[in-house]
Amino acid sequence: MRKGIGLIELVLAIVVIAISVMSVPMMLEQGNRNDTYSMMQEAILAARTKMGNILSYQWDDNAREGNNTNGRLRALDVAGGVKALDRNDTYYEERRIGHVFGDLRRKMMATVTYPKAGADANITDINDFDNLESNISWQGATTATDRYDYLDKELKLSTHVYYISDSLPTGYDYNDTKLLFVLDPSTKFSISDANSTNIKMVELNVTSPTYPAFLFRTFSCNLGETNLFERALP
Q: Which alpha helices (DSSP H) does the chain contain, by range?
């Protein structure tokens, strides 16, 4: 009787061990999937943060009034954009169709001023992010313990800046009260091109050996800025 019970216990133990061993690869695979998913979420968050950082910069260095770091940002003239968005001094000085009258509202430079061509070494506007690449998990690190706390140690962000067409689809006009606008990435061309438009497109490529690459796009327009109205102190 004791031998029979021992044999049954042995068989049950073997079955339990076999089931446990069979589940180990599945557990490891699920763990890898979880790590991959976490790394993909890290990449998306890093890309969104990078895009937000880029859009915090001025549209173009030449848009700063008086070439002064404290000057107001103005809308610029462009060489290759839609003519309907060009300045119209007969409509109102230093403005184009659609600009609102008022000294504190958006307007253009006093004289014709075009965007700069290409990027500079110092990052002061959106153009300067063109062709920049960084491995953010090691960015700014001098030792292994200084690196950012990312699971993916080979996460890379590559940014490129382009002009894209600012034209409207057939049948629409900028003088219409209702517009349909389509941002078309296929119309992109170099920011070094003299034929500038009113729209810049930022492309951000996220690459890693662990998962497929991501491509993010965001857009920034040649709008200038309004002046802030502040209540005078007594």
A: 2-55
Span 182-209, pLDDT tens digits: 899 999 999 999 899 999 999 999 988 8
Residue 144 is classified by DSSP as G
Structure tokens at 203: 């492309």
Instruction: Give the three-class secondary structure for 73.
Output: strand
What phi, psi does 212 have (nearest 5°)?
-60, 155
Region of residue 131 (phi > 0: left; psi between -120 and 50: alpha; otherwise: beta): left
Q: What are the tokens at 159?
A: 């940014």
CA-to-CA distance for 153 and 148, rounded, in angstroms? 9
| Assigned domain for 136 exists | yes
Contact 60, 120 (CB under 8 A): no
Structural domain includes residue 234: no
Question: Alpha-carbon distance 132 to 156, whole Å?
Answer: 10
Residue 15, classed as helix, strand or coil, is helix
Residue 212 belongs to what domain range? Answer: 2-58+123-221
- The whole-number average pLDDT for the span 9-18 is 69
Task: Calculate the CA 199 to chain-centre distance.
Answer: 14
Strand partners, 208: 211
Q: Which residues contact 120 (CB under 8 A, 6 or more apart)?
A: 61, 127, 128
Q: Report which of residues 30 and 62 the model is more confident about.
A: 62
Q: Which residues pair with 161 in a beta bridge?
A: 202
pLDDT at 6: 64
Number of structural domains in the chain: 1
